[in-house]
Write a structure and sequence with these properties.
The structure holds two protein chains of two kinds.
Chain A lengths: L5 H9 L3 H22 L3 H17 L10 H19 L1 H11 L18 H16 L2 H12 L4 H8 L3 H23 L5
Chain B lengths: L2 H11 L5 H10 L4 H21 L9 H15 L12 H21 L21 E4 L5 H4 L14 E6 L2 E6 L2 H6 L2 H7 L16 H5 L4 E4 L18 E8 L6 E9 L7
The chains are: A mainly alpha, B alpha+beta.
């Protein structure tokens, strides 16, 4: 068995080899951060969630079963953290709503390198982000997993803890909800 | 537009349809402007969503930050998972427990003296005096009128009337007296704390200033009297006497006297 597979690294980490867990962290932190940033479009919040996810993963390594992919297990932790944050932080939700209306756009950390040249694209992206942020958390999760991160329905079903058919149905509903929101923002809802 | 058609359009736009389903859907959409608009909307949505994937800033995470988080917070919260009960051992554990209960019950029946509910009548018991008269030493008017000062308590000897099978005798709290008694008598009274009581004086502190204790004496010849009215509503000390209940034969406690402003200590 190779020493650098996820399963081998997890086993080494379980036995107290923290460097093995650091290897897992370096391997997947970008993937996890990208997902968290889509879920919580503020970089500091996303970083906190990623760190918390890895801390929880380290604490619960003994509960990880080798038959599931490590990334799937990790993304499930991140999804739960994002859901908890979205449900429990009313104050943060209010701030996000303010941000969605543009009041706190200057606080958003994003790609602001060339806003003039990409003004139209940036406007669409912002509209999409606003629409995405306004979606319920369960819709947002499946949209990000399937249409942004392009994960397979098998992974999505494992992350969400549902069947593959259930995952497909959730994706369909979420796309419909997003389309209803994004159409007026993009100004293309004319019949 | 029907919801099923819209779902098919969304699937087609996001590439979730098979080739056959896609071709049949395209054929049915040729003259449907609304369906084409919806399909275009979904297609644009897909492109925009995929563009968000690249619109992610660099994170500022580090291994050191993670290590610190785990060390400072993670390890404190981490608790070893309690060992789950192995259900295979449960029948054996239940059998051992049942055997232990039966064995202990048999032991108690064989040796009643080990039962805490059995009263050993062979040993002399400390019986509470049937009548306690509080003797208040005379207090001078000068002491009584003294201004209030902190209560100073000495440890004067206490006399308690004890009825034993050899007759009534006084028991003092000093250990020298207790040592003179028989071991069984000593064992029956050694649990009594040293007691010093002052009756509620006319002045709050006159008794303490006088330094003279109140002595409890057995006074069988006199009729029991009601306790002296206390300066407090609630009595602080209640003296009880054990009596045998006529109906059940069990011992019961009867209040003999109560008093307040009593200092207990040693």
């Amino acid at each position: 068995m190779e020493l650098d597979t996820d399963v081998a690294l997890v086993r080494r980490a379980r036995n107290g080899d923290f460097s093995a867990f650091e290897t897992l962290f370096e391997r997947y932190r970008t993937l996890v951060f990208r997902f968290a940033y889509q879920m919580v479009p503020r970089r500091d919040d996303a970083e906190d969630i990623v760190q918390e996810a890895f801390v929880r993963a380290y604490q619960n390594l003994d509960k990880y079963r080798d038959e599931a992919k490590f990334t799937t297990w990790l993304l499930r932790i991140v999804t739960n953290l994002c859901t908890d944050q979205a449900r429990m932080s009313n104050r943060r939700q209010a701030l996000e709503q303010q941000e969605a209306t543009g009041a706190l756009v200057w606080m958003t950390v994003g790609d602001w390198d060339d806003p003039v040249q990409n003004l139209e694209a940036d406007r669409r992206k912002q509209a999409l982000r606003r629409a995405l942020a306004a979606l319920p958390i369960h819709h947002r999760t499946v949209i990000i997993l399937r249409d942004i991160e392009e994960r397979e329905y098998t992974d999505i079903s494992q992350i969400l803890g549902c069947t593959i058919g259930g995952a497909k149905l959730r994706v369909l509903r979420a796309r419909r909800a997003l389309k209803d929101r994004i159409a007026p923002l993009l100004g293309d809802d004319k019949p | 537009m029907r919801r099923k058609t819209e779902d098919q359009l969304a699937k087609f736009a996001f590439g979730d349809l098979t080739a056959e389903e896609a071709s049949s859907l395209q054929a049915s959409l040729q003259d449907d402007a609304e369906a084409n608009r919806t399909l275009d909307m979904y297609s644009r949505m897909k492109v925009e969503l995929q563009s968000l994937c690249t619109d992610v800033p660099e994170d500022q995470l580090s291994k050191e930050r993670l290590r610190e988080a785990i060390l400072t917070r993670g390890l404190k919260e981490h608790r070893a998972e309690p060992a789950r009960p192995n259900w295979l051992w449960m029948p054996a554990a239940a059998a051992v427990l049942a055997f232990g209960v039966v064995f202990a019950k048999g032991k108690l029946q064989e040796n009643p003296s080990t039962s805490p509910m059995v009263v050993d009548n062979s040993k002399p018991r400390l019986e509470l005096p049937s009548d306690i008269r509080i003797v208040r030493p005379p207090v001078s008017e000068k002491v009584a009128s003294t201004a209030r000062t902190p209560l100073i308590v000495n440890t004067p000897p206490m006399t308690v009337a004890v009825n034993t099978d050899r007759g009534s005798r006084n028991l003092r709290s000093g250990t020298d007296d207790l040592e003179d008694r028989r071991p069984d008598e000593f064992s029956s009274v050694k649990g009594i704390p040293r007691l010093m009581a002052f009756e509620a004086p006319q002045s709050d502190h006159d008794m303490a200033l006088s330094g003279q204790p109140v002595i409890f004496e057995s006074k069988k010849e006199s009729a029991p009297s009601r306790p002296q009215p206390s300066s407090l509503d609630q009595p602080a000390i209640v003296v009880i006497q054990s009596e045998t209940d006529a109906d059940t034969g069990a011992l019961k406690a009867t209040e003999v006297r109560n008093t307040a402003n009593v200092v207990v200590g040693g």
